[in-house]
Every structure is written in structure tokens, then in C-alpha cells.
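Input.
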Amino acid sequence: KNVAAKSGKIENKECIIVIEKLNSGKYAFQYFHDENDNNELDSNWMKIPKEGYGFSNNATGKFGPPAFEQWLFKINAHKKVICYPTY
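Output.
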């Protein structure tokens, strides 16, 4: 697995991150809204996130994160991916 971290500013209630020159293949990502700028996803004592978060394909899990296979999507050409955080 190749892992890369990207961050962006939220402007007008959206954050746009552009990743150029990706080869065709399967990809997945996870993201979170670091509301207090501490570079981590804050959670309560039950490990439930207190900040917005999400996964590619808008995948959701019931008790924990969704299965990785649900995150995967294919890129064959130019593609725009839109995801919405869970709060």
C-alpha cells in the first residue's frame, strides 16, 4: 500500500484537494475535519469521533469503520470524487 497525507483549508464549507497524475488503478482514502488543528481525529471515551470524518465512496460502518473493500474505487481517466463527512 502506498500512503500519502494531504490537507487543505475549508473555504465556503468545502475543502478541495487535487491529486494529479495518478495511474489507473484502485484507490481509497479516509479524511477528517481537524476542527482544533491538533493533527488527529478526536474521539470521546467510547472512541466515537467528535470531529467530522469519512471514507471514499461515502462508505459507512455500523460499529467501527467500514470494510476496506467498500472504500475502493477505480480510476481509469480524469475523475472527480465528492465525499461528505459524518458528524
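The radius of gyration is 14 Å.
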